[in-house]
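Issue 218. Parser rejects a valid record. Input:
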Amino acid sequence: MDDVAMNAVYEMARDIYHGKADVNVCQSKALTLYGVNTGSFTDYVRMFRYMFEGKTNKRDASLELKELYIERIYKEYGMEGLKNALESYKGTIQYYEQRGINKPGDRKIYEKYSRILHGGSKGKTAVKELECNSKKNNLKVQVFNASGECVYNGFASAVSVRQVGEN
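Output the parser choked on:
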């Protein structure tokens, strides 16, 4: 599938899930316009539902389509959507690996988006909250990442606050 077809299939799956489109109409459109057969289309609709709900999907799709779904869910539903999509994806990877099927491409995609979820892409810490209390001309500083973990707890004489990462 090319990018146009993958995006169209994603949008149809999303709209079916939210009750905004009829599955039979979309299935016919996917076949006619993009050459996506009925069985595959059913799998792609199910993949959206499982990623949106954070459930393990026991069917596979191309790496490109899985990454597109994760990216679109993240952009449309934010961090909570990304969290659910990654929970689903992790379960799918584990399901296949338990059956002896190595998934290095899937693991790479999972790690890429997991970094975004847990503190920003490029290894930066997404500052969720900064707490400063004065103590002998120093400031007590606590920095928490996007998942609520304290990544710095100490004193500083000056503090500059900026939010990094993606929200």
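Fixed in the parser; the record now loads. Confidence is low (pLDDT under 50) at residues 121-135, 163-167.
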